[in-house]
Amino acid sequence: MQIHNLSKTPSILNTFMSELRDKSVQKDSMRFRRNIERIGEILGYELSKSLQFKAQNIETPLGTSETVLHHNDIVLCSILRAGVPLHNGLLNYFDAAENAFISAYRQHKHHPESFEIVVEYLACPSLEGKTLILADPMLATGQSMVATYEALKPFGTPKDIHLVSVIGAQQGVEYVAEAFDADVKLWIATIDDSLNEKGYIIPGLGDAGDLAFGNKLQQ
Ligand SMILES: O=P(O)(O)OC[C@H]1O[C@H](OP(=O)(O)OP(=O)(O)O)[C@H](O)[C@@H]1O
Ligand SMILES: O=c1cc[nH]c(=O)[nH]1
Ligand SMILES: [Mg+2]
């Protein structure tokens, strides 16, 4: 897996990221969602540079403009719930993308510190020969991303796969790197050092799903 960690180059992205992390600013859930969406737009722009492009002429009122335009059949798949604002940000740029949604949540069956990933809802078009963008803002243990990919396999073999995330933990990034082929690309805003005993990214930002959409009762 090829890792594109955008935090390596300081940019306006740092402002959005620091607001997501800041425990007072993140109380504003509308701003929290919008900052994830803005990061989705930036990650989508960076990712777009690695798509396939074709020369095309555009007729202006006064002449012909030669340009190159991307011609990829994109399927944008996001993991509920926290993936929704990231999905919106990516979709703001990839106007014609088809869309897939999948639910993946942590089920704490035996102990609060151990969990398994439960995938239930899945709505997906054919992935055969297409460019799959798999988005989830938090890449903690990496298990949700890998479980989602497994669940998508019956829908066809994509031509290219891009993973998009906001914050990863080093350990989760390594886990995902093992599960995906070498040509898969990860576009991520930043990577933190560790996970706590409950599988939360440290320093991270807390629970992205709850911050975006409110608390939920544990199942
Ligand atoms: O890398 P992992 O260890 O699998 O953790 C990452 C997942 O955890 C969170 O989802 P959560 O289960 O909290 O659901 P939510 O989005 O509904 O809050 C987050 O939104 C990711 O999907
Ligand atoms: O730190 C984490 C880990 C998983 N999910 C989150 O929302 N935050
Ligand atoms: Mg959550």
Automatic annotation (TrEMBL):
Keyword RNA-binding: no
Enzyme Commission code(s) on record: 2.4.2.9
Top-level division of the source organism's lineage: Bacteria
Gene Ontology terms for molecular function: uracil phosphoribosyltransferase activity
Key word Phosphoprotein present: no
Alphabetic keyword roster: Glycosyltransferase, Transferase
Enzyme class label: transferase
Transmembrane segment boundaries: none
CDD domains noted in UniProt: PRTases_typeI
Domain Phosphoribosyltransferase: 12-214
Pfam families recorded: UPRTase
Protein name per UniProt: Uracil phosphoribosyltransferase
